[in-house]
Design brief:
Structural class: mainly alpha
Strand order of the largest sheet: 2-1-4-3
CATH class of the largest domain: Mainly Alpha
Helix content: over 70%
Radius of gyration: 40 Å
Shape: rod-shaped
């Protein structure tokens, strides 16, 4: 294996090591997301119930205003009763009084009904607030736990970053650019081994010339099918030799 290929193999292993932390970091962050969603659900439920209670209270106030108006109307009717003279006037006043009393009774019943609903919703609200408090505490705990886990990962990655920086500084810039170009589409399979004369990137058999060049190890060899950089493991090179 020539020096350039060795550099590429080494760099690709470092990059694979760095990227291997990504799934782990994603799983860790999922813990925070789940805890945040739980808090958000409690907050949304709390807001919805608060809106319902406020709406009911507005309706109660509206009914109370109507009740006062109806009482004033009944008082006015009571004052008019001794003054009416004709049967038509008596009938009209009586009908007006009946409707006012019916409406008054309905409004009182609605106020009682809405107050009962609000009592239930206030009890639900207390439960939600208790759940929200617990969920918020859990979120803070998860955030602290995750922060420690991510810090540990970053500490582990720092040594790999240092190794990568060192490897890059020692590499030929053209070779590095060549590697990065392949890595844009191949990711962590930009540099792959060959076993049984097959590329471990596309899993297709390479031709005899490419394989012969790979065994000679005099230059960088790419897969004739997918374009990835190829290399032979040390034990394979020994066996071929």
């Amino acid at each position: 294996m020539n020096a350039y290929t060795k550099d590429l193999v080494n760099l690709s292993k470092i990059d694979r090591g760095l990227d291997s932390y990504t799934p782990q970091i994603n799983e860790i962050n999922k813990k925070v997301t789940a805890a945040e969603q739980k808090v958000q659900e409690f907050e949304q439920n709390k807001e919805a119930i608060a809106v319902d209670i406020e709406s009911n209270n507005d309706n109660i106030k509206s009914f109370e205003i109507q009740i006062q108006e109806l009482k004033d109307q009944l008082d006015s009717i009571k004052k008019k009763q001794p003054l009416v003279k004709t049967e038509k006037e008596v009938s009209s006043l009586s009908s007006e009084e009946h409707i006012a009393k019916e409406t008054l009774s309905y409004n009182n019943e609605e106020i009682e009904r809405l107050n009962k609903i609000n009592d239930v919703k206030k009890a639900e609200l207390e439960e939600i607030e208790s759940g929200l408090e617990a969920a918020t505490q859990e979120l803070e705990s998860v955030q602290n736990e995750v922060a420690q886990e991510l810090k540990s990962i970053e500490e582990q990655k720092s040594s790999l970053y240092e190794s990568r920086e060192k490897a890059i500084n020692e590499m030929d810039l053209k070779i590095l650019a060549f590697y990065e170009k392949i890595r844009k589409w191949a990711g962590n399979t930009a540099v792959v081994k060959v076993e049984n004369q097959a590329c471990y990137g596309c899993y297709m058999k390479i031709n005899d010339k490419a394989y012969s060049d790979l065994i000679k190890g005099e230059e960088i060899v790419t897969c004739p099918h997918c374009g990835r950089v190829l290399y032979l493991e040390q034990n394979s090179e020994s066996a071929e030799a």
